[in-house]
Amino acid sequence: MRRTVYNEDHEAFRETIRAFIEAEVVPVYDEWFAAGQAPRDFYYKLGELGVFGINVPEEFGGAGLDTHKFEAVLYEETSRAGVNFGGSGVHVLLALPYIKLLATDEQKKAYLPKFVTGEEMWALAMTEPGTGSDVAGMKTTAKLSEDGTHYVLNGAKTFITGGVHADRVIVCARTSAPREDDRRFGISLFAVDTKSEGYSVGRKLDKLGLRTSDTAELAFVDVKVPVEDLLGEENKGFYYLGQNLPSERWGIAFGAYAQAKAAVRFAQLYVQDRTVFGKPVASFQNTKFELAACQAEVDAAEAVADRALEALDAGELSAAEAASAKLFCTEVAHRVIDRCLQLHGGYGYMNEYPIARLYADNRVNRIYGGTSEVMKSIIAKSMGL
Question: Which part of the chain is the Acyl-CoA oxidase/dehydrogenase middle domain (predicted)?
């Protein structure tokens, strides 16, 4: 079946990205993996390549497009090469929509030119120790000063991807107490400058997978945030977060599909090259059947991911549809990558093989952006259950 989501521009971008990965990432990726993060100057290279500006208006230095299809190509090409672009995905997929949706013209002039070049890398800080999926339960506070010039931010966040290198972080904090009939009320969003006094990055977290993506704990002690850095209106933060969750969940779904597709490619190459009992592993019926079953699952995930992509670009992807795509694609990727690792035998357990890294990287897909259990709850609710 011929895919219809991409055009010539997307395929030209794919060629550029593939060549960039081969030249700039693959030769040094083992060093990134050992260091536990991509180097800061790598993001300047992505800025020069135009990756950060695709969906940014031209007046701020971007390409002025309004599509997620170039991001989709990035997911496919990084997975195909068995690499990861560090915290850059959060910069574009998570942070940019909030800037475009909520920032005033003055804020956009201040934020977006540096966003496009990579001079200012952004992250999103929602999760706190002890809250997880319960965003409304956050304890971080931002209190308006008596003179009304700034907010005073206190609290802590954890699992913040891109948190080590971030220059600005969209921090979710309570500006008001929750209402008895609405515990989601009272959360606001702030574009916090990480150089602010009282802002500190704790330990870089030691993760099972996504080793080249810096994930950190953040702490705020009496951090002064100018009122000019409030994003949107006070106390409406939870509503804003809900608006952007479908695009975040699409990103996880599409990334998982791309990982599953890459896993089949890695396994196919391996079994054709590896010999057991005097014959290529690919010649055994079990190998053929396993890979055929994996390919069928990848085909199905591709269809779901593409459909969600088209709906997202059309502004029609609902919360339930995004949850369904995330649930399906992440569960498929879990099964496919596990079976493809099995076909590698003992070598599949070695980090020098991309399938091993992919196995570890993939596991978080069923946790972050809302767990699989949360996705099922959202789908069930949409069914009237």
Answer: 123-223
